[in-house]
Amino acid sequence: MDLSGHNSYNRRQFLRLAAALGLSSGLASCGSQPAVPTREPLPPPPSGEGAYLSVARGADPRAITRAAVEALGGMGRFVKSGAEVILKPNICVDYRTYEYGATTNPDVVAALVELCLGAGARRVRVMDNPFGGGPESAYATSGIAGAVRAAGGEMEIMNRNKFRKAEIPAGLDLKSWDVYQEVLTADVLINVPVAKHHSLGRLSLGGKNLLGVVSNPSRFHANLGQRVADLTSLVRPTLTLVDAVRTLMSHGPTGGNLEDVRLAETVIASHDPVAADAYAATLFDLTGADIPYVKAAAAMGLGTLDLDSVRVEEIVV
């Protein structure tokens, strides 16, 4: 490997090189600086070049996913040629398929993989830290593993040695936490939650889905609303696309009864994680302000709850 000119490497390039050489866990143990996010918040689209938030409805999950992204200006707005992309779905447990509404629809995830690769992504990885069961079996049972590989993406089992302490400068409750380092250093992070009821947080949407990238997520429940908002301020997804194809209306987060599932056949997408979650809440006859972590994220300036103030494009496919 030619390392000529290595003195001009910036921090992002160094982290990528270290990851490629398998040095990341060693760096952590040697007292290196905590991992820091390299993504800046994406600004709203220029006037006439895409919606602020899109809502697509139809019977084909892949088609409505593509339509929602196209309405935002296309995947090229989010993914540039050569980008490293991570998709974070909700792969909840290894003992139920996605039909029970607790796990992101595999066709939605596969469509996003295809769109990212079509926009020139160098690599698209998909990962989660399941709530119940092991990752390998959960990935398979969910149907996501097969769909992602068929679409040209990679499934990654999250290595516990890659969780590193990260400072949270804007955090009001949490000032640091162990976060999966590659989620912070990837060029693009697409958060792909499934919209569902949650016994503690009222709803599990985009913000709650980010607990899959931290160690000891159960400790967030002590102050769930603010802690999820604090984490969002650090992780800053590039794009949030909420899978509401099948919504779990009660007995979440794991479900288990098909009678609790409503076929909504909808996906919601935005660069603004607060707006995406706020719209998703309306599918449960709630508002973003009714969900503590969504309200707290808005108060921190991470997005807007006022959907009337932004351009929302609704599409039927």
Summarize this structure as a short list of keywords or feature phrases.
single chain, 317 residues, alpha/beta, two-stranded antiparallel ribbon, globular
Q: How is the secondary structure organized here?
A:
Elements: H1 11-20, H2 24-29, E1 53-57, H3 61-71, E2 84-89, H4 106-118, E3 123-126, H5 135-142, H6 144-151, E4 154-155, E5 163-167, E6 176-180, H7 181-185, E7 188-192, E8 194-198, E9 202-204, H8 206-209, H9 224-235, E10 239-248, E11 261-270, H10 273-282, H11 292-299, E12 312-316
Parallel strand pairs: 1-12, 2-3, 2-7, 3-4, 7-10, 8-10
Antiparallel strand pairs: 1-11, 5-6, 8-9, 10-11
Explain the overall architecture.
- The chain is of the alpha/beta class and 317 residues long.
- It has eleven helices and twelve strands.
- It has a single domain, classed as Rossmann fold, CATH 3.40.50.
- The termini are far apart.
- It is 30% helix and 21% strand.
- The chain has helices at 11-20, 24-29, 61-71, 106-118, 135-142, 144-151, 181-185, 206-209, 224-235, 273-282, 292-299, and strands at residues 53-57, 84-89, 123-126, 154-155, 163-167, 176-180, 188-192, 194-198, 202-204, 239-248, 261-270, 312-316.
- A hairpin with a 3-residue loop joins strand 8 (194-198) and strand 9.
- The strands form two sheets. Strands 1, 2, 3, 4, 7, 8, 9, 10, 11 and 12 form a ten-stranded mixed β-sheet that branches.
- The longest helix has 13 residues, at 106-118.
